[in-house]
């Protein structure tokens, strides 16, 4: 597995955008100092041009309360079938922006909010990444499988995987 560190901010944001788009759902963790940490699956609505990850949530949630006590969060993304993994550590803030909520609103989201788009509990969670680390493959899934299988049978080195830090 090769290691790369993407220090160019724009390149790092683009890599973050691609990985999150390909994976979408993450395990969103708050109250990181507790045992066990509070975690739940969340769908990422967008990674913006600054690298911020956006989520829709409820003011009634434990996650919302935890972020007000301590904004540090960790996001874990995984697509094992595609050999793609990403962890993002950062600070979250809760805010309300009607236009952004409308932008993200869809039938799936509608199922979570009984009162529709005007539900007073709808809130946005914006995660500003401080550190990110990923594991990925250099080529598509089928080529990665073939190279891994070839390595298993021949003992040849497989440098298909890569990991790295993103300086977002």
UniProtKB/TrEMBL annotation:
Residues 11-159 form the General stress protein FMN-binding split barrel domain. It comes from the Bacteria. InterPro entries: Split_barrel_FMN-bd, Stress-Dev_Protein, YdaG_split_barrel_FMN-bd. Pfam families: Pyrid_ox_like. This is General stress protein 26.
């Amino acid at each position: 597995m090769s290691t790369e560190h993407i220090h160019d901010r724009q390149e790092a944001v683009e890599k973050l955008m691609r990985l999150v788009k390909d994976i979408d759902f993450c395990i969103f963790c708050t109250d990181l100092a507790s045992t066990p940490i509070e975690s739940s699956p969340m769908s990422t609505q967008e990674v913006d041009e600054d690298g911020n990850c956006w989520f829709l949530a409820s003011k009634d949630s434990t996650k919302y309360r935890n972020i007000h006590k301590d904004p540090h969060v960790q996001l874990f993304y995984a697509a094992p079938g595609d050999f793609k993994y990403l962890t993002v550590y950062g600070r979250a803030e809760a805010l309300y922006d009607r236009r952004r909520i409308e932008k993200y609103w869809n039938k799936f989201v509608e199922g979570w909010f009984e009162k529709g788009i005007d539900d007073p509990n709808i809130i946005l969670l914006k995660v500003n990444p401080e550190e990110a680390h990923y594991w990925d493959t250099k080529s598509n899934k089928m080529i990665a499988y073939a190279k891994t299988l070839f390595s298993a049978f021949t003992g040849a080195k497989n440098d298909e995987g890569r990991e790295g830090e993103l300086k977002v």
